[in-house]
Amino acid sequence: MTNSAGGTGFSKLVDLERQQHQEAFTAPTSQYPHISAVIRFKMVSASRGIYKQVAPPHHSTLFRKNYTFLGVVFAGAFAFEMGFDNGMDKIWDSLNKGRQWKDIRAKYVQAADDDDE
């Protein structure tokens, strides 16, 4: 499973990572005078972990084009807002049960009707 360059894709990836680590240690100190080699190594290692988490070039159909991505973001935000508002209203109503106008209205309306008669 070798390619025309004589190495597998995985070995090329390993070689690329080694090269990045070597560059981190051998970077001219004038470029990074305040950063030691150990810190540069940690920075490269941290960024390498981030890039491994990025999805392969097989994009979802929702995120291929900018306008579809924006549509998904706006629709998701709208749905989240509606769900969050309904959830918070239910929590608020349960915490304040018996103290809101909708809970005590019948008592006052009935009392007003009794006063009219």
TrEMBL record:
Gene Ontology biological process terms from the UniProt entry: mitochondrial electron transport, ubiquinol to cytochrome c
Keywords: Electron transport, Membrane, Mitochondrion, Mitochondrion inner membrane, Respiratory chain, Transmembrane, Transmembrane helix, Transport
Membrane topology: Single-pass membrane protein
Residues annotated as transmembrane: none
Any one GO CC term of the record: respiratory chain complex III
Domain of life: Eukaryota
Family as reported in the entry's similarity comment: Belongs to the UQCR10/QCR9 family.
Name recorded for this polypeptide: Complex III subunit 9
Species assigned in the record: Glarea lozoyensis (strain ATCC 20868 / MF5171)
Lineage of producing organism: Eukaryota, Fungi, Dikarya, Ascomycota, Pezizomycotina
